[in-house]
Each structure stands twice: as structure tokens, then as C-alpha cells.
Amino acid sequence: MEITCRGSRGALPVCGKEFLKYGGETTCVEVTPADGTRIILDAGSGIQHVHDDGARSSPQHWHLLFTHAHLDHLLGLIYFQPVFDPNAVIEIYGPPLQGQPFETVLSSLISPPFSPITLAEMNAEFIFHEVDRNRFRLGTADVLPIPLNHPGGGRGYAIISDNKKFVFLTDNELDFLHEGGASFPEYAAFCEDADLLFHDAEYTQPEYARRKGWGHSCTESVIRLAWEAKVKRLGLFHHGRLRTDAALDAILTRQEELIRAQKPPLRCSAVAAGHTTVLQDPPARATR
Ligand SMILES: [Zn+2]
Ligand SMILES: [Zn+2]
Hints:
By secondary structure, this protein is an alpha/beta fold. The protein has helices at 102-109, 184-190, 205-209, 219-228, 245-260; strands at 2-7, 28-32, 38-41, 61-65, 89-94, 125-130, 136-138, 141-147, 155-161, 164-169, 196-200, 233-237, 267-270, 276-278. The strands form 2 sheets. It has a 7-stranded mixed beta sheet, with no helix packed on it. The longest helix is centred in the C-terminal third of the chain and has 16 residues, at 245-260. One zinc ion binds next to loops.
């Protein structure tokens, strides 16, 4: 299974030489199991960099999973090239929000005066699926949703395929219970033995003390979650719009002692746009 980040920024896209290492695009992650099923998590500005390689399926068939409907997670949708392809099928998965089906929420936003065109005017075929708490299957991948601890709610996802587990929990506050959210032990159980976890780590602990209840987590709590869940690799996600490359590197350096205290040591980095992680078993050793 391959996981490619197309955007790891929260709130607003940013640009400038101080953001080149981790990138400035907002949330979008491409997940490709070995069978080639095309799964995309969120449609932030990073989705403009997702392109059809033309080599896989015809017609193009995409599975677009949304965590929630805050603008940083869907502002790129109308710039996703396949929405204008009459041969594309785009299946959209999202949770009900504020008592409304995700289809209603998305359609009301992708319409004038907020957007020059509506979903119905786009050329691709859209198929909507409501995400509750039940697992569903996409190709060889099992997808498990969990409610997010975030204002207005949402869903996080675990994607299990090829004997590997990837968990995506962005816009999730570990130390505060929002309506409909889950507890720290529930998130730890959900992440258990994940090969890779991308988790919202927008704040440091002192920053979090001033923003409790805003729907995001601090690095220290995310590392503790990864420890308790025995996660193999952790990617800090949803970088604040003012968080420069140097600031992210400084946070990782400060946490190094905490990270290395785990046995075996937790592999931890800040998620960078454009970076691909390949989850696969090492080749079997030849026996004589
Ligand atoms: Zn966000
Ligand atoms: Zn949000």
C-alpha cells in the first residue's frame, strides 16, 4: 500500500521559501493499495496535484473520502481534473454533518455564489455514500470510520489492505470531548498496531493550553497516543499556517528524547507534501 501526501497544511494554503520542505497545500492524501484502487482522503488544495496516470482503470474510478466539510478540506475539489472528465466515476464518502447528509452539505457549497459551477454541471459521474460507523470495502481495502473530536464532528479512517494498516486522524482533539467524539482510549484502540498514523498535531503543548476546545491536538498527546497504540510510524499532520519548516524541525528535535524513549523507538516525522510512504513487508530472506 502506498500513501502519498498532497497537502498537510491546516486552515489555509501558504507559500514562500520558509515552507518548501513540508509544503503549503491543505489536506489531501492519496492511498493506493496493491490492487490499484484509487482512494483520496479529503480535497484540500493539495488535490490539484493528484493526476490520472492513464495506465490504471478505464473509465477512471476514484473513491474520495471526506473527514468533514471545513473549507481547508474541500476547497480544491473543483480543481481536481477528473471532475470534468465525462469518463470519470467519482464515488464520494462523507459523514452526515449538523443533521444533513454529506451530499447536501457539499452540493450547497459547490454552487453559486460560492462556486462558478455546481456538482451537477461537472462532467464526471458522482455517486454519494453516507459514512456512519460501519466498515466498508474499497477494492482490497477495508475502511473503518471513527467519529472525530472536532467542532461539528467528522470521521477519521483506518485503511487496512495488503496486511498493512494506515490510520488518518486529522482535525481531531485528543484532550477534549466534543459532541459525538470518542475518548483517548477509543482512539488508542482504533490506532492499535498501525503501520502508519497521520494525526493532527497542530499545536505544541503551550499553544494548546490557549486553544483547548478548538478541535486540534498537541504534539505531546499525539506521541502518547502513538506509544499506547504501538504505532510503528507517526506523521504529524495539519501544520498551522504560520508553522515554518524551521519551526517544525525544531519541534521534532525537542520531541526526540520523548520519541526515542519508546522501545522499539517510534519513527516520527512531520508529514511533507509530495512524500510517498510505501507500506510493505520486507522481502523474505533466501534460505539455503
Ligand atoms: Zn482542518
Ligand atoms: Zn476542521
